[in-house]
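Box S2. Input/output pair 1.
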Amino acid sequence: MLRLVPDNNLRLLFSPGAVSYHPVEAPGQNSDVPSLRPGWTTGSMVACSDCHSSDSGSKAGGVGPDGTHGSGRAPLLLARYDTADQTTESAQTYALCYKCHDRTDLLDNGSFPTHKKHIVDERTPCSACHTSHGVASGQGNSTNNAHLINFDTAIVYPDPNTGKLEFRDLGRFRGECSLKCHGKTHNAQGY
């Protein structure tokens, strides 16, 4: 996957100083994550094995061996996480995301007013907008890369009118995008 902001140094991506990150090295900094499933809080931390583990072990709901070195799902994923554009949303398609994030909340637009439109109607994968690990502090900023936003440039393109490919966080559940995706141009389109 080609990202707008290159994401290949895990130490920097998970660093507590990163712009946004999944909380592997330290608890998260965002105190407002309404989509978390019961049992997870904004103070929770995740282990690498919460995502990368045997797809037949106990964490995957199976009876096979546990561990991080055996899964039929690349790259050693515990559960299914489809990244192809035009993917039909289902509990199985994004099973990895839905282990921690409540599917109903996301599809009811609990944290982003057009999640359902993007994921269900436009069949845009989570990975088109979100990176799974984080955005390092030297590579992004809290305005453009909050909420793990780091566009997959094979799916999301610059706005042909301005040349911008960006998300701007404008406050709680507010932002704007300048980009082209699925043939639609967004020129500082707010939500």
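Box S3. Input/output pair 2.
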Amino acid sequence: MNKAVLLRLHRWISLVFALPLLVVIGTGLVLSFQPIAQSVAVVPGSLTAERLDGMIRQHDPAGKARGLVVNARDGVLTLAGVGPDGEIDVDLASGAETERETFLSDLFSSARRLHQRLVFGMGWLVTASTVAMLVLAALGVLMGLPRLRNDLGGWHRGMAWFTLPLVILSPLTGLMLAFNFNPGAPSGQRARAAPLSLIEATRLVASSRDPATILSIGTRGGRMMARVLEGGETRAYSLTRDGLSPLPRGWPRLIHEGVWNAWIAGGLNILTSLVSLGLLGTGLVIWARRSLRMRGRRAALAAPASTARSIA
């Protein structure tokens, strides 16, 4: 295909999807810091099995809770399936019920909603924008190797080519997750054995893992599962009365969410988001400059004709 046609397609796709791409990439940048913030907040030995067991028993004496989430960053334990609102937040320091809300939690929560659905449930537009990012990358490759110059266009092309694997991997894995294609992830096959209660599952995990590294425990796909932070990576385990069994790693989610290593993966995701914002911004500036130049040329060509008509 003619390079001029490819460039035109590249330009117009960027313009059409500029606003949703700005939101998706910007919120992705915010979420890139989440695994790092989570890893920093987890302090080994800061939570004991006895204390965790006591808080569950205190706030769920009937044993109705379906799961728990430990947010070390905010110092909050959330029990799901109990309380008038369907969950109870417990202060990890005092053991008392709390309604603590922090800026970071609100920021990450809002960023995730926007990143996945934009506004008014427009998840389809997020998917379309993700496809557009892959199409833009493909068009850039088809246009061939760039001539690198120290100008805006040169920086735009250089950023794209030198970070091409990252620019492709991020939307590709996001698209795979959007269509529930997550190779290596645990299947939804239901466990045949009698399920563990939450208190039993918590004791089982705490018997072989530092309770401070527990991120969540709950039922998913018919089985009891636990997510634990190990060496900067978020690992998933299936829980049965026989013990913990490591579940396969779903690599699209590991890559896209940066949970295979909080610092390295999080840093790469931050770099990818910054480069993507840079590509979008420089592309729009290049288009704006080009449009202004074309308007100037048309105005310059139209001026002599207007003068000739006025003289006549």
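Caption for Box S3: Residues 201 and 239 are 7 Å apart (CA to CA). The mean pLDDT is 89.
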